[in-house]
Amino acid sequence: MDVLAATGGDEVDRIVAAWRRERPDLDVEPLTVFSRVSRLARHLDRARRGAFARHDLETWEFDVLSALRRAGEPYRLSPGVLVAQTLVTSGTMTNRIDRLETRGLVERHRSPDDRRGVLVQLTAAGRQRVDAAMSDLLDVEARVLDALPPAVRPQLAALLRTVVAQFDE
């Protein structure tokens, strides 16, 4: 019987043990955290894509629609704000807005403050789609968190916030 399996070890424990055996000169402690984060990210990505697909959305579509939804009524943002919130180039955002507009999920409107400016607004169909996808996504993610007692979830969120903060500056 596998010693790691008998003691509750996982695949990452096996990987780390192998590296410790093969390269005892290396500090492989980062693998104990980041290999698990990486594996979790892959599982979450699959689950998220599935939740969005059930609502006929791609991940990037959900990102744009949810940015507009979070903006509050009238669910309208400039393309520049959408670029900043979704971390894509302006050319990519223009293409995404075009595709979402073709699907009837967003509309472009002239900015009342700038004749050359454009605002992107969520349509009723876009709002319905993103709301349904968000509900589905939260159900999926809540099931993932069921592995943790509710009392420790805020701790985990705080620890991850600390690690991620170095990239958000």
TrEMBL record:
Coiled-coil residue windows: none
SUPFAM superfamilies assigned to the protein according to its UniProt record, in alphabetical order: Winged helix' DNA-binding domain
Keyword match Transcription regulation: yes
Protein name: MarR family transcriptional regulator TamR
GN (gene name): tamR
Superkingdom assignment: Bacteria
InterPro entries: HTH_MarR-typ (IPR000835), Tscrpt_reg_MarR-type_CS (IPR023187), WH-like_DNA-bd_sf (IPR036388), WH_DNA-bd_sf (IPR036390)
SMART domains: HTH_MARR
Pfam families: MarR_2 (PF12802)
UniProt entry keywords in alphabetical sequence: DNA-binding, Transcription, Transcription regulation
Species the sequence originates in: Isoptericola hypogeus
Record-annotated HTH marR-type domain positions: 30-165
Lineage: Bacteria, Bacillati, Actinomycetota, Actinomycetes, Micrococcales
